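re: ur question from earlier - yeah i can do the single chain one, its not a big deal. heres the input i used so u can compare w yours
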Amino acid sequence: MAISRRRFLKITGATFGAVAATSAINPVIKGAKKIEEKTVKPVKGIVKIPTYCDICFWKCGAVAYLKDGKLWKIEGNPEDPLSKGRLCPRGTGGIGAHYDENRLKAPLLRKGSRGKEEFVQVTWDEALDFIARKMKKIKSDYGPESMVLFSHGVGGTFFKHLMKAYGTPNLTAPSFAQCRGPREIGFDLTYGDAIGSPERTDLKNAECIVLIGSHIGENMHNTQVQEFSAAVEKGASIIVVDPRFSVAASKAKYYLPIKPGTDIALLLAWMNVIVNEKLYDEEFINKYAFGFEQFKYEISKYTPEWAYIETTIEPELIRKTAREMARYKPATIVHPGRHTTWYGNDTQRSRAIALLNALMGNWGKKGGFYLPYKYEIPKYPYPPYPKPAREAADNPNHKYPFAEGEKLSTGLREATLTEKPYPIKGWFVYGTNLTQSLPNRKETIEAIQKLDLIVVVDVVPSEIAGWADVVLPESVYLERYDDLNTPLFREGFVSLRQPVVDSPHDQKPNWWIAKKLGEKLGLQKYFPWKNIEEYLDTRLKLAGLSLKELKKKGVIKAPEEPVYLDKNEDPEFYTPTGKIEFYSLQLKEKGFDPVPKYTRPEEPPAGYFRLLYGRAPVHTFSKTQSNKLLSDLMQENELWINADVARRMGIKNGEYVRLKNQDGIVSNKVKAKVTERIRTDCVFMVHGFGQQSKMYRKTFEKGASDSQLITRYKVDPIMGGTGMNVNFVTIEWEV
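and the output i got, formated as tokens:
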């Protein structure tokens, strides 16, 4: 059977001989050669090179085109299970990253005070020598654990390896505590298994899809958008819960404009209806549920009438949508979401979503949650890493008991500020703009000022780069190799990112930077490979494959495995009870509610609105704003304001306004989008705009920054995630 996150499918070398490889894409060249080997003349005509995208974490397989030796266009690889031959607008516009005039061109060394954005250009040797000296001193004075790596994306692989070899356990990414963490922990506490990336949602076969603040079509996760579109085309019943009438809401049979912060109330009321009316999958629950009777008792008070007062959703609509879900079970899926750090009670909200899905009996079922597996490629045979003398600093005394296995980015920021449990003296930041991704920019800057070293590796001069001691310019993804992509998915496969064109200036790939810095730190034994091709080929040969083959094809698929359970096949749940835990003894033992409960959210002060934020289909966070192909489509964000509110305040559509939050922070100017598609008690803007880096000329103060206004956050006591939808703003007119 297909194996999930807890138990990867182990494919032996003998099995690899039977791999069903994809057909080659022709004509193909090997790497970024633009000169014909025989004639030593520039290549004429069109050449195709397979790779995979880096604009978001989905890593879609792509095919890049060179025309007369120059980068021309990029499209989806038809053999790739994720892209299926199609890319989202961001992926298609990826070539703009190569031609971006705002790119970092050479290493930079700070010459003024931190944050002044005053740098001098240096050589790579000078930059890496400076970093190595500082890291050696930190190691000598404080221990290797006093270095922290913040990273995002597959490009961070070799820096993680470097930092483990150096001796620190403090490796983190905002993608856990500021994004998906509550979802993973909530499902793990319920099923003993996480959702993973890409999510194991069988949208294309679902007959009923429930989206709770999940903006499919705006957060362009390619496969999910394609599958959601297919489900809509086939007539699936769509239920959307959102304070804002999103793109997904426009496809819905039922739209529930919920009051922000009351999602758990609705989830409990839905489960109340389904349980009381015995609409759940009784056979599935009787066989696989633990603590169902206690759960049933706990939710008995959460009637639709009670929920109406909290959510403003009519009781009959709550009943109607609950019955709609049950009507299509088990091919009903309540989407678990991606960015799930909202109000500080987010693990319990994700638990409620997990339990509602369990009532549908959809685990391992078609149209529900399929059982993913991966094409397992052996790791490179490195020597063992040194064992850190101290535990990671992010979660001292295990304050957040279910954050184990992940590191909390805000916890490491706090350790930097307090020097507890021990001093943090160096940050190495790769591919993440911390002043935008972490809540409370002031705390981030205060932490930076306590450091002896901060290094930023990026492709553009992001805000965080302006605070660095050393800025290292990375080659964009179309100019470099990265590690192999072998995700958990409905199909097992391995895909390759390879260079399509050369870097235009003195940029270097992440693997080269990590290797050279490792050598200067005396860690040569951890980088025994001569170059990245030797590293990749070693891994692939251990699996019975070769780099030569993968460079030609871009994607190699494993033999197909079943992703649904047979009728007579029992699912496995890796919980303490071996069942779906409707009543969690794990939570009870740690002093938390074993069944999710509702707590009324804080109300905005008079004249204030709850600040909500989200995504746009043409941008990825703050990393694509200077990509001309994408910025031409969206140069700045807008502030969604309810039409009645705007009318009362005298604000016209397209007029510029500013926002002031509850702590007196005032935003850049932002264009008002006056619309009836949002509730009167909240406003909404797209994340990633309003950047403050003067070096990042094209994006400087374009639109408003939601991050600047997120000065408050509520920490999830279960796993340490930061709920950030707890800020309130008032609207001021632009003068």
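DSSP finds 23 helices and 26 strands in the chain. not sure if urs matches, ping me
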